[in-house]
Amino acid sequence: MAKAGRRAAVPENEKLHAQGREEGYRQGLEAGRQAFGVPWPGTSIIIPTFDKRGYLEQCLDSILAHTPEPYEIIVVDNGSSDGTAEMLASRGAALGFGRLRWRLMGRNAGFAAAVNRGLMMARGEKLLLLNNDTLVTPRWLDNLTACLDGIPNAGIVGPVTNFISGEQRIDAPYRTIPAMRAWAASFNEPDPGRWRETERLTGFCMLMRRGLLEEIGYFDEGYEVGNYEDDDFSLRARLAGYRLAIAGDAFIHHYGNVSIRSIGRRMEAITLRNRRYFLAKWEGAGSLPPAIRPEERSASAGELELYPGGIAAEGADGTVWWVESGRRWRIDGAWTLPSKRIAMPLLRRLGVAAEPVPAELAAVRWHGLPDAPPLPDAPDGGAKPPEAVLLPDGSVGLVEEGRLRRPLNPLAASSWSLERRPVRRRLSPAEADAIPAGPAIAAAPQLHQRL
Question: Taking every annotated instance into account, which residue ranges of this chain make up the domain Glycosyltransferase 2-like (predicted)?
Fold first, then answer.
């Protein structure tokens, strides 16, 4: 009888275990929902890497040795074949849960794509991009953070180093790594007098707040492999009204271009292509109006100010949204007209309408028909949709909410498929000048991933 009793107890125990698992899952799911989007009060250190396991291990060791502040490390591997994945698994197990996380991309998707994947994974209030061929030094992160917090309206801060282009390079007297460590320990004495503003920061080491990412979005993945994506991101931060700064009291060692050199002669062609893309994207940027004042930032739409309204935007989960007048409506039904993938941090800045918009109605508004039906659940739903007009220079602009919005350049126009919009009138120079000017339309970053 005792054996039978024990056998009978097994199903009951399994039932209790199943109930426990279900309850644990429910509680975990609810905790995840509540925690999602809530930053962790630390710094997320994001390291893209490709086939340089030895350098990456040195970099990780230097972080562990010289970073007492709260941090997490996120390594994004661009398809390495040198045992990087196995090394990360071993290191992650040794460091404990959450200290080191990684993502294996499967192929070399480029620096910008790897950075973006790491930014999406990051939990920290501050975000730091770091090359795999760097060695950090005593007080490096503390001094960078002090500079970011100490310079009014600072958006991105970078250190000085021994090997880089531009203003961040300094003459360093050491010849060996042990000598570098000893020299850097004295060099990195906190000194706000060595902080200075700059117009350009390179991407080997960049510290920013999460709020900047939420305001301007991710890196542009249109830059192949590497080069110029950091210039692009820095310019977008400046256009949003932020300052760039060099923390002259924070030195890190940089071996320099280790991953890029491994690409060989192909890198010259890649750099030329990226330069052409950068110049085409930002042609005419000098005509943009003054940047947003800091006191206006909380109410600003961020980089969305440079995006047109009356567009279909694709989110990270594949949902297609109709964007107009600072709000978004989920498009209900098949959408066959042009759409643009937009970073979720930017889409989240837009209010969400309670009711979806039928695809047919959104299509009517995309075509700019003056008698288009109003949008559901919109106080100004009866307003006319943005109207495509032919400008005196032959380009297509938009009359949006009574203001004339001109594309910054041909790439901006094609980025938003303005040339595919039905044009119902051509403006003379006098007619164009008579319409109040709205913000210029700039090209959106290319996102090949869902982010």
Answer: 44-217
Reported pTM: 0.88
3-state secondary structure of 135: strand
Question: Among the listed ranges 14-23, 296-305, 407-416, which one has the minimum average pLDDT value?
Answer: 14-23
- Least confident residue range of 205-219, 250-264, 392-406: 250-264
226 to 23, 263, 449: CA distances (angstroms): 47, 11, 16
> How many domains, in total, are found in the chain?
2
Residues 305 and 428 in one domain: yes
DSSP state letters, 156-217:
EEEEEESS-SSTTB-----SSHHHHHHHHHHHT---GGGEEEES---TTEEEEEHHHHHHH-
Tell me, what's the pLDDT at 302? Answer: 84
97 pLDDT band, cuts 50/70/90, is: confident
Alpha helices by DSSP H, 358-402: 359-366
Query: Alpha carbon of 232 to those of 229, 236, 408: distances in Å?
Result: 5, 6, 15
User: How far is the C-alpha of 60 from the C-alpha of 1, rounded, in Å?
Assistant: 61
Residue 215: alpha-carbon gap to chain centroid: 9
120-141 per-position pLDDT tens digit: 999 999 999 999 999 999 999 9
CA angle 48, 103, 445 (to 5 degrees): 60
> Do 307 and 274 have their domain in common?
no
**Those residues with Cβ within 8 angstroms of residue 47's Cβ, 6 or more apart along the chain or in another chain:** 56, 59, 73, 74, 75, 76, 118, 130, 131, 132
For residue 26, tell me if it sits in a domain: no
Mean per-residue pLDDT, 103-111:
93
Residue 387 gets which letter from DSSP? E
Do 448 and 220 meet the contact criterion of CB atoms below 8 Å apart?
A: no
Task: Please give the backbone phi and psi of residue 375, each rounded to the nearest 5 degrees, phi first.
Answer: -75, 145
Q: Characterise 369 by phi-psi region: left (phi > 0), alpha (psi -120 to 50), beta (else).
A: beta
What's 419's DSSP letter? G
On whether both 268 and 316 belong to a single domain, the answer is no
Indicate if 245 and 362 belong to the same structural domain.
no
Return the biggest CA–CA distance within the chain.
Answer: 101
Q: Tell whether 119 is covered by a domain.
A: yes
Tokens of 163: 């090997």
Residue 370 located in a structural domain? yes
How many angstroms separate the CA atoms of 113 and 151, rounded? 30
Is residue 316 in a domain?
A: yes
Q: Please report which confidence band the pLDDT of residue 266 belongs to, taking 50, 70 and 90 as the band edges.
A: confident
CB–CB of 306/241 below 8 Å? no
pLDDT score of 434 more than 60:
yes
